[in-house]
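Input record (one chain):
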Amino acid sequence: MAKTRESIQKTIEGALLEALKAAFSTNLLSVMAYGSYTGGDFVPGISDINLLVILERPDTGQIGFLGKKTHSAMRKFRITPLIMTRTEFINSADVFPMEYLDIREKNSVLFGKDETKSLSIKKNNLRHELEERLRGNVNSLRQMIAASRGRGRILGGALKGLFGSLKALFKGLLRLKGIPDIPREGAELVKKVQGEFGIQGEAFIQLLQLREGKKHDPSKLAAGVLSSLEELIRIVDTMNVK
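The corresponding structure, as predicted from the sequence alone:
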């Protein structure tokens, strides 16, 4: 396994990129890296490497050829490719506005051009996705509580993995309000959401602390997170955006 960011970057932007070009030839329009690979929170060997691969047309033969040539590297470096045609990418902006805004905000173009500049993302679509994701997190958390069978250790372990998905939601919520300079760090991000939406966000801070090793009562924490999420749902559900 590669031990440094530099060795990983050499593979991704060297051999792997050449494999993509060989597999798709003139069908390849753009290759963009996004996510933690393009930020300061990338951890070699732990963080996934997200690649957006934009094609002119769908070709399962070419995709299969790519898989044969790069399977080992994909597993070794935890590479997750998102392969789409340009038409699919542009036309799905109304379905995945939150994810595409993340890619637009922070990406690295490895080949071709930045296709996110062609996206048309409407705030109303973003509001719909945020509400759906918030409600999904509420349902998932209730399932965690049921599955823990009242055992704090099990519930606490499940809660440790929850903040990652909430972080993306918090960034989306701030974008919905048109907030510039969105914080990247967890605590600052929570405080910004807390201030802009007027919610009791202490449970989110405690959730972050739990992931970092500080002890909190899992049952009380889960109840607090649920309450704050339900509060956000009520706010987002009544927001009038265009």
